[in-house]
Specification:
mainly alpha; Non-ribosomal Peptide Synthetase Peptidyl Carrier Protein, Chain A
């Protein structure tokens, strides 16, 4: 798992599932919260996707605007949590 592939998969999911295929203007720094792309219901859908696709559980204390504001932030959150999970598993 790397940043570029994670970013592309999250972007593809948001374009397909949350924007009904209309995400041509979506960039890694597009303000998803400010544009209303991520509502509370859509955040739940996104978390479900992240959990199943990347096997990462996003804890409640990570559900802050800073981590969900754009694609870059979401991809970085997924990578950080995935790395942390791998380190914890290796230590056991």
């Amino acid at each position: 798992m790397n940043y570029e592939s994670t970013l592309e998969e999250v972007k593809a999911y948001i374009e397909r599932e949350l924007l009904a295929g209309d995400g041509k203007d979506l960039t890694p720094t597009s303000p998803l919260l400010a544009w209303g792309v991520l509502t509370s219901l859509r955040v739940v859908q996104l978390l479900h996707f992240i959990r199943h696709r990347f096997e990462v559980e996003v804890p409640p204390d990570e559900l802050v605007a800073q981590n969900l504001k754009d694609l870059e932030s979401i991809a970085n959150l997924v990578l950080r949590l995935h790395t942390s999970n791998q380190q914890q598993r290796a230590a056991q």
